[in-house]
């Protein structure tokens, strides 16, 4: 069997290790994770959204697979019945845009979704306002709405994959990768901070927003940069009728969550920085005014908590880079650059990488369009859906 070293023990790394173990390769897989507490890992700090609103068919198909995994995750992972509950709940997802040109792009988006097997509706402003009269859509021209989309408990999903990975016999080693021993064709050893060197036949870089640092150690250039994103939980004095996740083209999001709501806004100016600090003034100065504009009842709200996570943004096109280093070291692979949708696509990516590493090809879902060749060519994967 091939000796496989996975750099990064987050969801992508654990999903890949789990699927390798399911194929009988558990004893030949080692996962390297620098932070065993996972305090600053991406998945536990995500909001857990699962959507099919994508303009790339494979992204839609990966989300559809995630739905199947999350609805009974303990069964999928081979854990005791009901020992893990992903907490998946349907609440609907709306991506709203402004202007005639963007509305026409939604038609392309919807066609892509439908061709990939997802159902959705194209709504104009009047239809949106009629369905959710408490929300103000005056500044929006229309939206794509997917009623089946929703959210999961991200930490439960991650802990489930991690536990099953460990139970299968895969070793998760607490250490930090500091370099690689390689020639001009392949990597031979992975060097660790502890001084240990691990033999390898295949290396997978699944280091999330630190993926570019790991790739740089072997001379591989990837357009992946960290992007902090803050999320806030708040409650409202008024009782509102249910409404779906609402995300607009600026990156502003409102999502019902329990008895309250989540909100956030992507700040592209922070691209390239690593910070888990929460700036509570962002809620007061930026988000609250937007909330009140979107829904008059949100003029009377109270912010209860906030946290910050970090996206691994692919600055080329917002889609992940998956597979071997084309044009470089043949046994160096990468799975990073998910730009905010690593949780929902982690199960399918892990399954696909296990197929690729053991059988030489993607079998259940062709993920080759996400390969490194497009990075070399500077070729974007166009997507009119929401990005990071």
Task: Let me know the number of strands.
Answer: 20
Structural class comes to alpha+beta
| Main sheet attributes: strand count, strand direction, barrel closure | 8 strands, mixed
Helix content: 25-40%
Rg for CA atoms: 21 Å
SS strand fraction = 25-35%
Can you tag this structure with a few keywords?
single chain; 388 residues; alpha+beta; 8-stranded mixed beta sheet; 6-stranded mixed beta sheet; 10 helices; 20 strands; 26% strand
Describe the structure.
Helix 1 runs parallel beside helix 9 (342-359) and helix 2 packs across helix 9. A hairpin with a 4-residue loop joins strand 10 (177-182) and strand 11. The strands form 4 sheets. An 8-stranded mixed sheet has the order 6-7-5-15-16-17-14-18, with helices on both faces. It has a 6-stranded mixed sheet with strand order 9-2-1-13-20-19. It has a 3-stranded antiparallel sheet with strand order 3-8-4. The mean pLDDT is 96. The longest helix has 18 residues, at 342-359. With 388 residues, the protein is an alpha+beta fold. Helix content is 29%, strand content 26%.
Which helices and strands occur, and which strands form pairs?
Layout: E1 4-7, H1 11-22, E2 29-33, E3 49-50, H2 57-70, H3 73-77, E4 89-90, E5 93-97, H4 100-115, E6 121-124, H5 125-131, E7 142-146, E8 150-151, H6 154-167, E9 171-174, E10 177-182, E11 187-192, E12 197-199, E13 202-205, H7 211-216, E14 224-236, E15 245-248, E16 253-257, E17 260-264, H8 281-294, E18 301-314, E19 321-324, E20 332-336, H9 342-359, H10 373-377
Parallel strand pairs: 1-2, 1-13, 2-9, 5-15, 13-20
Antiparallel strand pairs: 3-8, 4-8, 5-7, 6-7, 10-11, 11-12, 14-17, 14-18, 15-16, 16-17, 19-20
